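Intended use. Records like the one below are meant for learning the mapping from a protein sequence to its folded structure. Do not use them to infer anything beyond what is encoded.
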Amino acid sequence: MKSKKKIKKKYTKKYTKIPLFKMSKNYSIKFYTGGVDVAKWSELTQKEKKEALEKSWYIRWYFENPKTNKLERQGNMKSGVNRYHKMSDRVEFLKQAKKFLKTIIKEGYSPYEKSIEDHFETENTFITIKDALKKAHDHSSLTVSKVTSNDYYYAKEQFLDFIGLTNQLKDIKEVTKTTVLKFLNKKLKETSARTRNNYKSSLSALFTILENKLNLIDRNFIKDISNEKTKAKTDRTFKKSELKNIVDWLKYTDPYLLLYIKFVAYNFLRPVEVNRLKVKDINLEESLLYFQAKNKPLKIKRIPSIFIDDIKSLNLHLYNKEYFLFTPKNEPADWNSSDNSRRDTFSKRFKIVKDRFNLGNQYGLYSFRHSFITNLFRYLRSVEKKSYSEAIEVLQPITGHETRVALEKYIHTIDADIPEDWSDKIDFIL
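Structure written out for the chain above:
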């Protein structure tokens, strides 16, 4: 029979203490890290690392019994640490949980007066920034559109990347207005005022859920952050000569971008709507495409025969139906990014074209939509001799505008309805 001394020695070897704080006379806090010394993690084999991570990690702590004045072991604290699959994440989480435990003990907490679970509930539960934002996003996906949910997800991931892993594992209540402002200012420098404002809106929506639905923060301070002013912009239409030059050049330099443009030009889709297209949205048998307009249910449009063959050349049947049609890989692929980010990717790609032909900031991918709607409207008016009202009636189901009023406003904005020369009607010559 083994001696008690040997058994005790063997038992204590299983537990690894990370000395973050000095020992207190009335409590002791240690970590169990899967039976290994994390300080020697690099020396372990892959098998040993895997076995350690398959075990439950936890805080093993002792507190002085007021009746016996002796340290007694309390219930193990996991607090969600085993949700993490990397050693560094688990250690950082345990550090933060230990910090929280030490803080409440200093504030007078005693496990002999109430359980640690009760205290966590009273204190609105320690939960990491990463986990809290995930909970908020999961909750949002139950009530918002898939498009909006994707925007929330991307904003969340970008913010987490910005604050770094160490901060991700801190309590959600430690997020400050200053931190969010630094993130938004960074996005303003990297993108635009509009994109920055979109990030703010998405994060604010998640923090509102944290406050009102999950009760994990006291107040959503992001809603107090003002939006940056954005410049109203209407992209100019192209001259026919400019269109010809662009098309001729793209045929040889970037045919993939040219196909992207054809969806904008021939199907009158907005660039952001093109970016949402997936392989499954293209029905070549019936020449139909399905697309998601912003805050609208799924819509259907005819694919004009003028570029059906171009689409067929992609061999879409070879790709996963959930793949996005247009990606940085120049072929359908998975692309985990927000609407704004995907749109900006192709806008930057088109900037090469703009620089090549000295087009300037007043031109963008939207210009193709404006140009082809203008071209079709003027054809209906001048060639088919339709009245303004008749032209609008023919045009509306093609462009996909929800109402006649919306289309008329659009036609006015892009100045598509230019009257014929009126010189012969002037009876006084200067």
